[in-house]
Amino acid sequence: MIAAIKKSVAKGTVVAPPSKSMAHRLLIGAGLSKGTSVIKGISQSEDMKATLDCLSALGAKCEMSGDLVKVTGADLKNLPENPHLKCRESGSTLRFFIPLCLMSGKTEVTLSGSEYLFSRPLNVYEEICRKQGIEYKQEGATLKLKGILKSDNFRIKGNISSQFITGLLFALPLLENDSTIALIPPVESLSYISLTVQALKTFGVEIKWQDEKTLYIKGNQTYKAIDACVEGDYSNAAFFEALNALGGSVEVKGLLEESLQGDRIYKKHFPALLKGTPTINISDCPDLGPVLFAVAGAKHGGVFTGTKRLRLKECDRAAAMAQELEKFGVAVTVREDSVVVYPHDFHAPKEMLASHNDHRIVMALSVLSTLTGGKIEGAEAVRKSMPDFFEKIKSVGVEVTQYDA
Predict the structure, then answer these.
(1) Please, what are the averages of pLDDT over each run of 10 residues along the chain (405 residues)?
(2) 284 catalytic residue (yes or no)
(3) Which of 217, 245, 260 represents a domain boundary (last residue)?
(4) Which of 217, 245, 263 is the last residue of a domain?
(5) What pTM does this model have?
(6) Does 274 map to a domain?
(7) Identified catalytic residue from 47, 233, 263, 287
(8) How many other CB atoms are there within 10 angstroms of residue 367's CB atom?
């Protein structure tokens, strides 16, 4: 699909989509609970469908009506025979579910997804499985597991994806004995770990910080069914707030003021980009990378550090944004752990913009195109996290036409 965006000034009010991060966590918590939970604020995005499909594969019962999902928890000690979990392109789903597939040991569990998803590293889990004698066989975009995860004192690098930590935090409270997770400095994406701890607490599962780098997980805990509503998503709200940085007047509603989401930091970063050429560390908010680069390109540039994990997202986001910003006359230097944006001769793109099959690239380029006009090929990638993105920006006056390529 191609999205053609005309030069537009956005004005109006938009409701932030539900937080994808919290939605994953609440759905999985519900899937591990005894009884039936009701979770409100679940979008029809591809990532949410992946998590619901995987819960069903493990034996949970999921009923969706609008944005409300009723989840009756699964018994992970007695899995269906040879379950197959289809993770689509959701990195969160894959990494959150791997430890949960190691609760029974009675049957082989298969996880699958896109080829690109399985090109992203899983070495933390592979190492744990090797150490504990768990069968771990990856062939292309398929992973087969058989075995039982054991309590342990885990040591995990703090500068890898926090999704590995979250996956373990879901599973370890269900084991008979206590565990610890020691994070080896430097520790990044701490806010996502805090979101997990907060979510688990709502299900009656307690995780404690033994010290500032060590998590203590008491074993033999039980998840309790709850009714909950997913809070608004700061990472996706950033694209609407970026319209204001580019001259619009959009009010974003539905965000929790005291949220633990690390991506709320955009409220400081956008003003800094409007005032000058700041240096911004995005190691704790990598999902903001594309939209921050876009605003920097349209304004005064910027120096971004802590960018190395952008290579491990749906695409190499640093390289992709450098390639697309160049079409706007913006030069970008990509280094191992930094990105420098130099606005030079900002102008309307003279060729088609590319999505790189990445939802955040599409949304960042859409925002930038409101200044100049532009066409984005592969715009359907927004379905991954925000299927109604184009409807939302249309509602605040951005002129968009969508048609098949």
Answers:
(1) 97 96 97 97 94 98 97 96 96 97 95 94 96 97 98 94 96 98 91 96 97 96 98 97 97 95 96 97 94 97 94 86 97 96 91 96 98 97 93 98 92
(2) no
(3) 217
(4) 217
(5) 0.90
(6) yes
(7) 287
(8) 27
